[in-house]
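Sanity check. The docking grid for dinuclear copper ion depends on where the pocket ends up, so I'm generating a full predicted complex first rather than guessing from homology. Inputs follow.
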Amino acid sequence: MSVRKAAVLIGLGLVASAVGIALGLAIDWFPDQASTQAGPIDTLYDVLVIASVPIFVLVTGVVVYCVREFRETPETAGTDGPPIHGSTKLEVIWTVLPTILIAGLCAYAYVVLRDIEEEPAAASADQREIRVGVTGEQFAWTYTYPKEVTGDKALTTTRLVLPLGRSVDFRIRAKDVLHDFWVPEFRMKMDAVPGIETSYRVTPTRAGTFPVVCAELCGLGHSTMRSEVRVVSPERFAAFLREEAAPAVEQGASPTEQASAGKEIFTAQGCGGCHALADAGSSGGVGPDLDEVLEGQSVAQVTESIVEPDAKVEQGFARGVMPGSYGDQLSEQEIEALVTYLRRTAGS
Ligand code: CUA
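Predicted complex below; grid placement will be based on this.
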């Protein structure tokens, strides 16, 4: 190859790398950053883009060059190329260089990971890290606030609310199969594994509502296994804990009071994510349309459908999609309220 040709090829490679890197950095790949962990992770990603694009260009360039230059011609058709021994020097170079590069990137990634996994120092006692239990099951998330956080007894709920600017230590479990607890805006992601507890910590830096996504294929309802996290001020967080601790419905409530509490439970539990119900303004299509199927059903039948969803499954719907844990999560009064609400509204 002439020097001139080599210079042109190297020039082309440099231009292609520059364009590739510029594109890779310009494209907004990720959602908003909403935790202190997000910044270093996005920087790590950018560094990986910068390191990988020139290598991609080099490898693709060599392949395209070889296909063009050394393709079979009528003269060489059907013959083998000359037997050659490779270049030891070249082999040493192309082994050592990638080794150094990979080792460097691994070391950098390790430092970043160690850094973001460390518990941040709390400025004061009410800034101390809180621990929140996360439980995945087919196909819903539940969250547990221990008594150190609530100041009273532990609280289990389907709503995830976090105080802004305070480190959270998620302790993640699975009841049945593998799930994966992921909040894209926080950037952190961890498998929920049956039988063991996994964990990660984040410090939310942005108030707002962000999606919680199950990132591990876990069965038929995997794509519906979504929830959300609300990041709020410390005052709103304290109010949330008080609200959750208060019973949704008192014993001996009138049917009208029950129905209104039932509607709140329907919304809070995210039932509308899977079920259509006109009164609640929901249109989920994963489970049966409640306006249709509940007509003429008795209290016992509706209760069974909530507490033991697999006992009788509507035609055209699969067993095992609706979590069977509502009987444990909701109190008897809450279930009664929900049933009252559903029977009053659906199909009426
Ligand atoms: Cu749980 Cu996918």
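Relevant for the grid: The CA atoms of residues 105 and 136 lie 33 Å apart.
Also worth noting: The two ends are 83 Å apart (CA to CA).
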